[in-house]
Specification:
The strands form 2 sheets. The protein has a 7-stranded mixed β-sheet with strand order 5-2-1-6-9-8-7, with helices on both faces. A two-stranded antiparallel ribbon has the order 3-4. Helices cover 41% and strands 22% of the residues. A hairpin with a 3-residue loop joins strand 7 and strand 8. The chain has a single domain, classed as Nucleotidyltransferase, domain 5 (2-Layer Sandwich), CATH 3.30.420. The radius of gyration is 19 Å and the shape is globular. By secondary structure, it is α+β, with helices and mostly antiparallel strands.
């Protein structure tokens, strides 16, 4: 049996809201190309068909929760850093009735969610030398957790490529501390490595647009997008209750700047430090 891990993120570029990194885990003797999952696809494709509801309908069996799903319960069940919202009052609880419980494929094991909210995002960028370094560290946090929770057998990891980065060997040595690491290839399309770590063989690949070609990475992509959407609904609801006729935001740069102007008075009343609400670009 091999452990198959896929990772992706949502919210890498926006000005507002969390960066959410996710990992999905399967265990099977089948080839990775045969991983099951009806409806699983690149989150952008699924979201384009029907917004958050389309994501929720596919994800329901994989969340391990009943219906409706609350952000509180989802974070308690899947988050590797617990529920970070205590430090961010604008993220209230959100209830979603769309996910329907069901039975995931036999090979599926679980999802992991890593929500990096604004203050942690900014501090992490400063410590890691930018958001690319932060994304790598937070992705590897999930990979380490998945490997620790299923410590037997070989593992295959596919990560959606982190921007234009092609060379990951030094970063992998720092984050995973393998006994050995062999670089297989580093091309514009894929960077691939073989590692020996704590007695197990691991192959890890960083693939351009992995969420369009790899089932486990696509499931992670959908989970990350879904969770970020729940966070953003909470943020929009919080400020809509305080600012009349406020238009919601998805948090991306231009509209995020508009939103900041619209809520300026509320932020002033909250005595909110900028790095608690606005992410570094």
């Amino acid at each position: 049996m091999a452990l198959h891990i896929g990772t992706d993120e949502a919210g890498y570029g926006p000005l507002l809201g969390p960066l959410v990194v996710a990992a999905s885990v399967y265990e099977t003797d089948e080839e990775r190309s045969a991983l099951p999952g009806e409806g699983i696809d690149d989150s952008k494709v699924v979201y384009g068909r029907g917004g958050r509801a389309a994501l929720a309908r596919v994800l329901g069996p994989y969340l391990g929760l009943g219906t409706p799903v609350s952000l509180r319960d989802l974070l308690a069940h899947l988050s590797v850093r617990g529920d970070p919202r205590a430090d961010y009052p604008w993220y209230g609880d959100v209830i979603d009735a769309e996910p329907r419980p069901g039975s995931p494929p036999d090979a599926f094991r679980r999802l992991y969610i890593n929500p990096v909210c604004e203050r942690d995002f900014n501090a992490g960028c400063a410590a890691a030398g930018g958001k690319a370094g932060l994304l790598f560290q937070e992705t590897m946090r999930l990979v380490r957790r998945a490997l620790a929770d299923a410590p037997e057998g070989r593992a295959v990891v596919v990560c959606d490529r982190h921007g234009g980065r092609r060379r990951y060997a030094a970063l992998l040595m720092a984050e995973l501390e393998p006994a050995t690491l062999v670089t297989e290839r580093e091309t514009p399309a894929v960077s691939s490595y073989r590692l020996r770590r704590r007695g197990r063989d691991i192959r890890i690949r960083f693939v351009r647009q992995a969420d369009a070609t790899d089932k486990a990475a696509a499931l992670a992509s959908m989970a990350a997008k879904y969770v970020r959407e729940l966070f953003m609904e909470g943020l929009n609801a919080y400020f809509a209750s305080r600012v009349a006729d406020l238009r919601p935001t998805a948090g991306y740069y231009q509209d995020g700047r508009r939103f900041l102007v619209d809520i300026e008075g509320v932020l002033g009343e909250m005595d909110c430090e900028r790095d608690t609400f606005v992410r570094v670009s």
